[in-house]
Specification:
413 residues, alpha/beta, Aspartate Aminotransferase, domain 2, 3 domains, seven-stranded mixed sheet, 12 helices
Length: 413
């Protein structure tokens, strides 16, 4: 993968050019668009620092990126074509450079978050099975591991399809494929014929990565109809940079779509999820009734902030592929330093070596230490089995050293 790093000046100039291609609510006769610039009583447009703040200028200009611009390309909303072009470039970069897709063979958009992106995939594949194969809702099942994100049961509920939840092995967090066989056969006995599979490229709690090959091969070998979506909401901006595992890329012919979240590893504002799918899938959920929208709409949310697309593009460009790889490797180094200390103390934990999440067995550290350092429990209602550390940019080495010192003093007391 490779994309060039840009300087702040180059980024600022590019965004200025894009904004100049958008409509300007302040000095053009725009009388038909149901939107405007941000209210000037609260969002002052003349501040001196804005000239050097491309994201904030875009936020104030308030472009609407409704639709899927990789699908419509030059036939989308003309009002915001400048910033929409940057969103197209962003989706192409992520799909082709990070996820190994072929040129112009993917569609996608910057979503309000990973939850919508996951549900977008479920929506597409439910409709695919219905429209293409004549499936009934009761014949479709969503299949995911018990460690998967809560957007899976949420999406199943919204789309009125049943969930099949696969157990995992406690120590390895791997899907228990022996149990999966009996579970899927029982589902078939109960009338399930079409399966939407979710594979995790880093679960939220553990950072575990599903064995996607064994997972997909089971459904292939049993001649079962399926579509495979990868939830890379956490792992999407780190795992491809810290491993050469091409199974989690579009080079894997069995994967149809991905979710990524910019607001996790990429450090963009909340509301910068990403959905990317292979060509000929987005149109399955095209809302043709959206007649007033150029090119129609394909997304759950409809209207969405163009500024968020700019934020994702800016963060990718300011680092470049080489700079981003180095940044992720630094986080892995810090995580490995932490786990080596845990090993020395005999503290039990789970960690994928290519990720920066460490889930520590709750029996091995006192609750008061976990709460002092704002660790996340596997069960927020009490009785947690695991406490999670995520070594993000803000997690200083001094914090980790202090944590280790506190755990050691408690363990040795």
């Amino acid at each position: 993968m490779y994309w060039k790093k840009l300087s702040h000046v180059e980024i600022n100039d590019r965004v200025s050019e894009a904004l100049s291609m958008n409509v300007n609510f302040r000095d053009q006769p725009i009388i038909g668009v149901p939107g405007s610039f941000l209210d000037e009583k609260e969002f002052y447009p003349e501040a001196n620092f804005l000239a050097d703040s491309p994201f904030l200028r875009t936020l104030l200009a308030n472009p609407n990126h409704i639709g899927c611009h990789t699908y419509t390309r030059d036939k989308g909303e003309p009002f915001f074509k400048g910033t929409q072009a940057i969103e197209i470039e962003t989706i192409d970069l992520v799909a082709e450079q990070i996820l190994g897709g072929e040129e112009n063979q993917q569609d996608g958009y910057i979503a309000p978050g990973g939850t919508e992106a996951n549900i977008q995939a479920m929506w597409i594949y439910r409709n695919y099975f219905k429209k293409t194969l004549g499936a009934k809702s009761e014949e479709i099942a969503l299949v995911y591991s018990e460690d998967s994100h809560y957007s899976m049961p949420k999406g199943a509920n919204l789309l009125d399809i049943d969930s099949i939840i696969l157990p995992v092995i406690d120590d390895t967090r791997e899907i228990d494929f022996d149990q999966m066989d009996s579970i899927i056969k029982e589902a078939q006995t109960n009338g399930k014929k079409y399966f939407i599979l979710i594979a995790n490229m880093s679960t939220t709690m553990f950072g575990s990565v599903d064995d996607i090959t064994t997972y997909a091969n089971y459904f292939i070998e049993h001649n079962l109809a399926f579509k495979l979506h990868v939830d890379g909401a956490f792992g999407g901006f780190i795992y491809p940079f810290t491993t050469t595992d091409e199974r989690y890329s579009f080079k894997n012919e069995h994967i149809s779509s991905f979710t990524l979240d910019g607001h996790k590893m990429l450090q963009t504002p909340f509301g910068t999820g990403i959905f990317i799918a292979r060509k000929n899938l987005m149109e399955i959920v095209q809302t043709e009734e959206a007649k007033y929208v150029y090119g129609s709409d394909f997304t759950i949310c409809g209207s969405r902030s163009g500024a968020n697309a700019i934020a994702v593009w800016m963060n990718l460009m300011i680092h470049g592929s080489a700079g981003w790889t180095v940044k992720m490797e630094h986080l892995l180094d810090r995580t490995s330093r932490l786990t080596s200390k845990l090993d020395q103390m005999g503290i039990r934990y789970f960690r994928n070596p290519h990720l920066n999440i460490v889930a520590i067995n709750a029996e091995d550290i006192p609750d008061e230490v976990a709460m002092k350092y704002n660790m996340i429990p596997s069960n927020s209602d009490g009785g947690a089995s695991w406490w999670k550390i995520v070594v993000m940019e803000h997690v200083k080495q001094a914090y980790l050293d202090s944590f280790i010192s506190d755990v050691k003093s408690k363990v040795e007391a």
